[in-house]
Amino acid sequence: MAKPNLALVGATGAVGTVMIGIINSRPNIWGEIRLIASPRSAGKKIKVHGEDLTVVALSPEAFDGIDIAMFDVPDEVSEVWAPIAAERGAVAVDNSGAFRMDADVPLVVPEVNPEQAKNRPRGIISNPNCTTLTMMAAMGALHDKWTLEELVVSSYQAVSGAGAAGIDELAAELGVVGKDASLGTNTDDVRKALAAAGNDLSDSPWRHPIALNVIPFAGSLKAGGHSSEEMKVRDESRKILGISDLKVAASCVRVPVQVSHSLTVHAKFANPLTADEVRDVLSKQPTIRVVDEPEKHLYPTPAMVVGQDPTFVGRIRQSLDFPNSIELFVVGDNLRKGAALNTYEIAELVAKEF
Question: Which positions bind phosphate (predicted)?
Fold first, then answer.
């Protein structure tokens, strides 16, 4: 049986670069690997599985002969080009938000709903938002055992979730406030120090200082005062888990961390469960690492998790005042499992069909 041909669209971007590392770290199951990017990046050489590959410009012809095309590009690019790839015969695996809630596009997490990858009438499979993905392997495993009914989630999202601009902004601000310990955490003082250094926050993704600060909003404003990130957690959790009436309350917060999203999760189930039972179930999941020894100060943190593939779970405890409920803390690298890795795992899943 011939090996399927793979394309990576957005090969020179931030997530695309992470994807190249993932491809190189895993077995080569592909026939041809084709790297695609904007015309300004065409001609660049990137080493994949020991071979120098030349980046080609995005065009309809770039998908000829391709079986699976992964998209690590902005929504507006995927919206145009993923259907074109599908029309040229490729299965498009899209990491953007363009198709996530399309009824004809499955939203797939291989550990949770791999069977949905075959249900793709448009020839497109969507990758969930990085915040939702952080908890989904754990929630899927627990739902299978005890039947999930309600979720209350607070996210602590790294600045890399806002792209390179978020990383650059935090670095610039830390360079300013780190020179003056007298600033403390007073936002007005920090803002004045940044302005004096030539950063008036006009180019910041948040319009508030992120250094020495926490911003209780992530994404864009939606109806009722909710943010787009909060709506994604609700809507995507329902679709991935197949629970159309799942009750979800989410609050998404931006924190001064470069990489790795963290979530506190309150989960209510239809059936009784204990913290020890939850630890046992989660510890058996191949893509989850349980780090839960608070008496030794061992629990997941963003710094611990960055650069790793699994999601990490700790602070597992039974709710004191809510029956059939568990509290836990989940951390995942938002650039790996939250984006590139899950996309690639979907591609691997589809490759088994060839």
Answer: 100
